[in-house]
UniProtKB/TrEMBL annotation:
<dbReference type="GO" id="GO:0009691">
    <property type="term" value="P:cytokinin biosynthetic process"/>
</dbReference>
<dbReference type="GO" id="GO:0005829">
    <property type="term" value="C:cytosol"/>
</dbReference>
<protein>
    <recommendedName>
        <fullName>Cytokinin riboside 5'-monophosphate phosphoribohydrolase</fullName>
        <ecNumber>3.2.2.n1</ecNumber>
    </recommendedName>
</protein>
<keyword id="KW-0378">Hydrolase</keyword>
<keyword id="KW-0203">Cytokinin biosynthesis</keyword>
<dbReference type="GO" id="GO:0016799">
    <property type="term" value="F:hydrolase activity, hydrolyzing N-glycosyl compounds"/>
</dbReference>
<comment type="similarity">
    <text>Belongs to the LOG family.</text>
</comment>
<dbReference type="Pfam" id="PF03641">
    <property type="entry name" value="Lysine_decarbox"/>
</dbReference>
<dbReference type="InterPro" id="IPR031100">
    <property type="entry name" value="LOG_fam"/>
</dbReference>
<dbReference type="InterPro" id="IPR005269">
    <property type="entry name" value="LOG"/>
</dbReference>
Length: 186
């Protein structure tokens, strides 16, 4: 693994644990020499994580649609800022650049991005590991919902294992690395 795409909120969230997790993930990425690929914002969890990677001497690639440059306050200090036409191009470009995916807490956009890469993995369009940074149990309802979908017969049990979940960035990165190197990725 060389590049990790991280989906995260453009807001800080109400719980200080979320911003702390964004900082900790940024530190881990930089310490391990992993490049961050993300949505390109300088605010919220996205901005905190990108700033931390940069402060620690790491590389950061932001990908942002033209229409969001003003609203999401593009982070112009990143190593590379790629401007794309729309959200579809953004997700495609981030997916193309990444060797693995992580979701920090976030809103609709974060959930949509996670489920798109999970769907791609389920369909065999990529074989890259996907992880949830489950801070304070944030993603527990989602994990339970996926199991409910399996139990209802809409996806096979093996597809529920596409989402790895850990509460600590170091543990999640280790699991992603293991999944990516063992051939048991998505």
């Amino acid at each position: 693994m060389r590049r990790i795409c991280v989906f995260a909120g453009s807001r800080p969230g109400r719980d200080p644990q979320f911003m702390e997790a964004a900082r900790e993930l940024g530190e881990e990425l930089a310490a391990k020499g992993l490049e961050l690929v993300y949505g390109g914002s300088q605010v919220g969890l996205m901005g905190r994580m990108a700033d931390t990677v940069l402060e620690r001497g790491g590389k950061v690639t932001g990908v942002m649609p033209t229409e969001l440059f003003d609203r999401e306050v593009a982070h112009h200090q990143v190593t590379q800022l790629i401007e794309v036409r729309n959200m579809h191009e953004r997700k495609g470009k981030m997916g193309e650049l990444a060797d693995a995916f992580i979701a920090l807490p976030g809103g609709y956009g974060t959930l949509e991005e996670v489920f798109e890469v999970v769907s791609w993995g389920h369909l065999g369009l990529h074989h890259k590991p996907i992880g949830l940074l489950n801070i304070g149990g944030f993603y527990n309802p989602l994990i339970h919902m996926v199991q409910k979908i399996v139990d209802a017969g809409f996806i096979p049990e093996r597809s529920s294992r596409l989402l790895l979940s850990e509460e600590r960035p170091s543990k999640l990165l280790a699991r992603l690395q293991q999944a990516g190197s063992s051939g048991n990725e998505c």
